Automatic annotation (TrEMBL):
Top-level taxon of origin: Bacteria
Name of the protein: Cyclic lactone autoinducer peptide
InterPro entries reported for this sequence: AgrD
The entry's keywords: Membrane, Transmembrane, Transmembrane helix
Parts of the chain that traverse the membrane: 7-30
Length: 43
């Protein structure tokens, strides 16, 4: 039972990490221009 729980936990961690990497790659590849209204002043 413990072994199965560890496998499930590992799968969840790997899934979350790959999701973060995938969304980061998408944002890096498709970098939309930010409108002037949404930009913070002074940055």
């Amino acid at each position: 039972m413990k072994k199965r729980a560890y496998k499930l936990l590992g799968a969840i961690i790997v899934s979350a990490a790959s999701l973060f990497v995938f969304t980061g790659c998408l944002f890096y590849l498709y970098n939309p221009p930010i409108p002037e209204e949404l930009r913070r002043k002074g940055v």
